[in-house]
Here is the input.
Amino acid sequence: MTDDAWGRIRDELIKTVGRDNFVNWIEPLEFAHVRDGVATFLVPTNFMGNWVSRNFGDDILQHIKSSGNPVSRVDFVVPETVKPAPPPQPAVTAAADDSDLPGAPLDPRFTFDRFVVGKPNELAHAAARRVAEGGEVTFNPLFLYGGVGLGKTHLMHAIAHELQARRPDLKIVYLSAEQFMYRFIQALRERQMMDFKQIFRSVDVLMVDDVQFIAGKDSTQEEFFHTFNALVDQNKQIIISGDRAPGEIKDLEERIKSRLQCGLVVDLHPTDYELRLGILQQKVEQHRAQYADLVLADGVLEFLAHRISTNVRVLEGALMRLFAFASLVGREITLDLTQDCLADILRASDRKVTIEEIQRKVSEHYNIRLSDLIGPRRIRTIARPRQVAMYLAKQLTTRSLPEIGRRFGNRDHTTVMHGVRRIEELKATDSQIADDIELLRRALEA
Ligand code: ADP
Ligand code: MG
Here is the structure.
């Protein structure tokens, strides 16, 4: 098939799909090639590719075929060189008035006002607030850790914004550990180590994001250690983030680990349903003006908060895509539209809980050995947790009763069925069991 041929087919497609659909979905397609009976088109985003494939793929294929081209499938791909543009970097730097300072830009949206507080992050938030008051340094460093997208960077920027407003006299530097390394290497190369040391030792507040990055990078770790000590000695506030607790970062020098543990270590827990719903509501509020015409059906936010439990960044991204899409096609945001528009995200965040995880969590929870949980012993203190684990396996996985039985020391499926029923009964009458199950379910689905 030639470009010209595609041009003619495209013109035919207008009649089939209508003018609006054509402009939105067909016109942006760029014909790439036909190979082995597959016609490939380039699309700007995966989302668009999926959408076109699902809604117009058959039409396109039919038209190509009926114009005499031996094509059996159409494919839509995002060209690899086309990376999504990075978000615009605001020109506010933590060290705006001191051009020698090596700070990275602060995101103006990452303020305390916009940080939704819930159970999973209340401690981290409280600690961040305290440091942001800029009073006497009470814990040094403040070490924030947690999984991807749980708000570490947001909290650090919020501290910087707040401190800057309260104490304009302070030299505040925020940067990622990667940027720290980059600066350090540059200084080495340009023989400006003296300047480097002097600059970093002259700041009042140093924030280093994603410190796990320097693990295993020996000379950078060494320099970080010295910078760190010099500042602590002068009683300057240091705030560090990492993706796990200091003691658990692999290839990080022992002395750095123990230094990082000296101050206050707080973690951001995985979000829970209430926090996710709160964040979504806040986002809707923030975008109300921009999407004034949009109608959001009841239950959509609850659905998203329930189904997208991976991280806040994904949750936000999903909502923004939904808004953009609904305003593009001018439709109300219903559950159906949501499921259609976010199919890929929803599929990716379907957490697959395994029987092994369930068994591990349950034995930890009841403080019994995993081998006992699976083994033959029938005393109550082991048999009951075993039934709880069977119940959860039935509820949270797609495994059949015989399969579950096999994984519990080759038990018969009727034993599993009995266990599941027993727990269902107990849940209704025994609040302790009901609580245990709720707790375990949350932990497994987090
Ligand atoms: P991390 O640095 O832990 O990977 P970020 O701080 O970059 O995560 O957060 C990812 C996104 O989620 C950001 O857009 C941030 O504003 C948002 N976010 C995370 N937690 C919250 C929260 N509690 N309230 C509001 N927004 C949040
Ligand atoms: Mg971050």
About this structure: Residues 110, 114-116, 121, 146, 148-154, 279, 312-313, 316 surround adenosine-5'-diphosphate (ligand 1) (CB under 6 Å). The beta strands are 30-35, 38-42, 73-77, 142-146, 172-176, 205-209, 237-242, 264-268. The mean pLDDT is 89.
